[in-house]
UniProtKB/TrEMBL annotation:
It is a single-pass membrane protein. This is Plexin-D1. Residues 1-35 form the signal peptide. Keywords: Cell membrane, Developmental protein, Disulfide bond, Glycoprotein, Membrane, Receptor, Repeat, Signal, Transmembrane, Transmembrane helix. Its main location: membrane. It comes from the Eukaryota. GO terms for biological process: anatomical structure morphogenesis; endothelial cell migration; negative regulation of cell adhesion; positive regulation of axonogenesis; regulation of cell migration; regulation of cell shape; system development. GO terms for cellular component: plasma membrane; plasma membrane bounded cell projection; semaphorin receptor complex. One of its GO terms (molecular function) is semaphorin receptor activity.
Length: 213
């Protein structure tokens, strides 16, 4: 989610020139792992290139709750799951997406085209195709998950960013050999304990009715 405090502070610095229609606009967004940083600048409305378009410029009076934020579904994905797309709900002040080029960017020069299901109003729903599995970095040694950053770009400009997690239940058990069962069943994502094979697995198998969860 965007750091609302950054946006609000940007507006506070301009209290002395409120009569000039002072507000803020996001000029760039950078996402590093679980941290999203925002570069915003305080400006008068006429200096914002898109300032006259609906929800493209936020005035001081509207407050930080209008900062764009995004929710991804599912937020965690098993490395063995056959999931092709991730759903994205955008809240806050974002211009209407009608006629815009909307992309999900997974890194410099790596993006997929977005399918927009609801492109107007305060909440906007989109579907982003996931990259092929081999395009993601490998899960680091000694860990059981990878954080994948994704930014929504509208006509080439990043407007909001977030992240989701790719996890591997088998690694969860392997990196905690002395407490593999407990670690498997108490992890933040859904894993199952295979008593017969002493393994942490990510999905139920009808041939193995005795999986613990």
């Amino acid at each position: 989610m965007l750091a609302a405090g950054v946006c609000w502070a940007c507006g506070l610095r301009s209290l002395g020139i409120r009569r000039l229609m002072v507000g803020w606009m996001v000029s760039s967004i950078t996402s590093l792992s679980d941290t999203t940083t925002v570069t915003c600048r305080c400006t008068i409305q006429k200096e914002c290139a898109q300032g006259l378009l609906a929800r493209s410029w936020i005035s001081m009076g509207e407050g930080p709750q209008q900062c764009p934020s995004m929710t991804l579904t599912p937020p965690e994905i098993s490395i063995s799951a056959d999931i092709k797309d991730v759903g994205i709900l955008i809240n806050g002040s974002v211009p209407d997406l009608v006629g815009s080029r909307v992309e999900c960017e997974y890194g410099p020069g790596v993006s997929t085209a977005v399918t927009v299901h609801l492109d107007y109003g305060p909440a906007q729903i989109q579907t982003c195709p996931l990259l092929p599995r081999e395009n993601y970095q490998p899960i680091p040694p000694g860990t059981d998950h990878l954080t994948v950053s994704v930014a929504i770009k509208v006509n080439g400009t990043s407007v909001v960013s977030g992240s989701f997690i790719i996890y591997d239940c088998e690694r969860t058990g392997a990196i905690h050999p002395k407490t593999s069962c407990v670690s498997c069943l108490s992890t933040r994502w859904k894993c199952y304990w295979d008593q017969e094979n002493h393994l942490c697995v990510s999905s139920k198998d009808e041939s193995k009715p005795n999986l613990l969860e």
